[in-house]
Design brief:
Radius of gyration: 19 Å
Strand content: 25-35%
Largest sheet: 3 strands, antiparallel
Order of helices and strands: HHEEEEEH
Shape: elongated
Number of helices: 3
CATH class: Few Secondary Structures
CATH architecture: Irregular
CATH superfamily: IHF-like DNA-binding proteins
Mean pLDDT: 96
Structural class: alpha+beta
CATH topology: HU Protein, Chain A
Length: 90
C-alpha cells in the first residue's frame, strides 16, 4: 500500500472526499514529524510508538576493497509495534 492507496482507503472508510482524506493524512504525518523533531515520542495506543534513536559515528569496511570508511553519526526513527497490532498479525 502506498500513500495514494491509503488516502483512498481513508476516504472510503470515513465517507469523505479524497481531498479531505489527503489533508487529514498530511496533518497526521506532519504532526508525527514535528513531534519527533522535538526529540519526543508519539504513542498511538494499540498501534505502536514512534521514537527517535541516535547512532554513533563508527568505522566500517567497504565490502569490495576491505578499506576502512568513516560512517557519520545519524539520527534515526524507531517504531515499536503495539500489542493490538502485534496480535492482529499473529
Amino acid at each position: 500500500m502506498n500513500k495514494g492507496d491509503l488516502i483512498n482507503q481513508i476516504a472510503t472508510d470515513a465517507d469523505i472526499s479524497k481531498a479531505q482524506a489527503t489533508e487529514a493524512l498530511n496533518s497526521v504525518l506532519t504532526s508525527i514529524e514535528g513531534t519527533l523533531k522535538k526529540d519526543d515520542k508519539v504513542t498511538l495506543i494499540g498501534f505502536g510508538t514512534f521514537s527517535v534513536g541516535k547512532r554513533a559515528a563508527r568505522i566500517g569496511r567497504n565490502p569490495q576493497t576491505g578499506a576502512e570508511i568513516k560512517i557519520k553519526a545519524k539520527t534515526t526513527v524507531k517504531f515499536k509495534a503495539g500489542k493490538a497490532l502485534s496480535d492482529a498479525l499473529n
